[in-house]
Amino acid sequence: MPSITIIYASTSGHTEYVVETLAKALSADVKLIRCESATPEDLTSADVLILASGTWNTGGIEGQLNPHMHTFLLKDCKGVDLSGKEVGIIALGDDRYYYTSRAGEHLRNFIQSHGGKVLGNALVVVNEPYGQEEKMKKWAAELQKHIT
Questions:
Q1: Rounded to 5°, angle at Cα 102 from 13 and 26
Q2: Mean pLDDT of 123-143
Q3: Among 68, 79, 103, 113, which residue has the fewest nearby CB atoms (within 10 Å)?
Q4: Rg (the chain; Cα; Å)
Q5: What is the pTM of this model?
Q6: How many domains would you assign to the chain?
Q7: Contact at 8 Å (CB) between 11 and 66?
Q8: Residue 120 lies in domain
Q9: Which conformational region is residue 139 in: left (phi greater than 0), alpha (psi within -120 to 50 degrees), or beta?
Q10: What percent of the chain is modeled with pLDDT above 70?
């Protein structure tokens, strides 16, 4: 059974809810780590990595990563080598904005620019995650197929 580390940024609780729902749906050893507590070594410690972030409108620019995830990935982990690492993407967003779930693009760019391989399709959760549990479980089942 593969080990999975999910590193996530959550301030309103939505991303945390999504990753907790996924952890319950996966048949694997899953470790959840808030990015504020994560270390660069956490990116490579498990068989599979999943990065999860909401899309923010910080600094007057729409469509950014959660500020905590931004700092973690682009400052703390700028030298991390993800060569050969399979990484899943979870992006949350709000349909009131043009760049609804652009955090996923930023996560993909980080993964690919550090040598990692994007695992399957991203899980995109738009608006409130509550009531979208079946979508999350379906994504978990597809992820399971890729990693076993």
A1: 50
A2: 96
A3: 79
A4: 14
A5: 0.95
A6: 1
A7: yes
A8: 3-147
A9: alpha
A10: 99
Q: How far is residue 36's CA from residue 128's CA, in Å, rounded to a whole number?
A: 23
Burial 49-64 (b: 16+ CB within 10 A, else e): bbbbbbbbeeeeeebb
Q: Tell me, what CATH number does 128's domain have?
A: 3.40.50.360
Would the pLDDT of 58 be above 80?
A: no
d(CA 113, CA 93): 23
The answer to whether 52 touches 88, Cβ cutoff 8 Å, is: no
Least confident span in 18-32, 49-63, 112-126 = 49-63
Cβ 48 vs Cβ 119: under 8 Å:
yes
- Look-up: residue for tokens 């999910």? 6
H-helix segments, 32-102: 67-71
Region of residue 7 (left: phi > 0; alpha: psi -120 to 50; beta: else): beta
The DSSP H or E segment spanning 100 is none
